[in-house]
Amino acid sequence: MISTLGLVLICITVGCNAYREDEPPKIRFGEDACDECRMIISEERSSASSLDSGGMVLKYDDIGCMILNHRAQAVAPKRSWVHDHETGKWIEAEKALYVFSEDFHTPMAYGIRAFSDEEVASRLAGERKGRVLLWDELKDLITLRRK
C-alpha cells in the first residue's frame, strides 16, 4: 500500500519531469549532446531545439544540425526554437530571421545566427557580408550546402 507521502513524492517527481510543449526545453550546456552530430552543446546562442511528432525533445549545438536532423525525419517536428543571437532568448524557429555569413564561427561551421529584430539582422548582414534569410530559405540553403 502506498502511503500519502509516497503519493505526494510520486506526483512531485512526475510534475518535475513533465515537459510543456509550449515552452522550449532547458539545455544543460557543457553536458547535453547534440542529437545530430553528438558534440557537447556549449554555446547558448548557437544552440537550437525541437519537439518531434512523438513528443521527444531534441537538442542541437548548431542551427544547421537541427535543419539536417529535420530533413532526415519522415515527419516534420511539432515545434522548433532557436536563440536570438542578440538577447539569448528562445524564439520560434519559423518566426526568426537568420543571418548567414561565411564570417560567422558556429560550433559546426554552418555560419548561421538567429534574430527576432529585422533591423539588427539587416545591420549585421551588411557588416559581415552575409544575407538575411527566412526559415524556409535557410532550410533550403543548408540542405543544398551539405549535399
Structure explained in plain terms:
With 147 residues, the chain is of the alpha+beta class. The chain has one domain (24-145). It is built from four helices and seven strands. The protein has helices at 4-17, 63-72, 118-127, 135-145, and strands spanning 48-51, 57-60, 79-83, 90-92, 97-100, 112-115, 131-133. The protein starts with a helix and ends with a helix.
Beta-strand proportion: 15-25%
| Rg over CA atoms | 18 Å
Gap from first CA to last CA: 59 Å
Low-confidence stretches: 7-18
Question: What percent of residues adopt helix (DSSP H or I)?
Answer: 25-40%
Placed side by side, the strands forming the largest sheet appear as 2-1-3-4
Key traits:
147 residues, four-stranded antiparallel beta sheet, three-stranded antiparallel beta sheet
Write the layout of secondary structure elements.
Elements lengths: L3 H14 L30 E4 L5 E4 L2 H10 L6 E5 L6 E3 L4 E4 L11 E4 L2 H10 L3 E3 L1 H11 L2
Antiparallel strand pairs: 1-2, 1-3, 3-4, 5-6, 5-7
What's a quick, concise take on this entry?
This protein has helices spanning 4-17, 63-72, 118-127, 135-145; strands at 48-51, 57-60, 79-83, 90-92, 97-100, 112-115, 131-133. The protein has 147 residues and is α+β, with helices and mostly antiparallel strands.
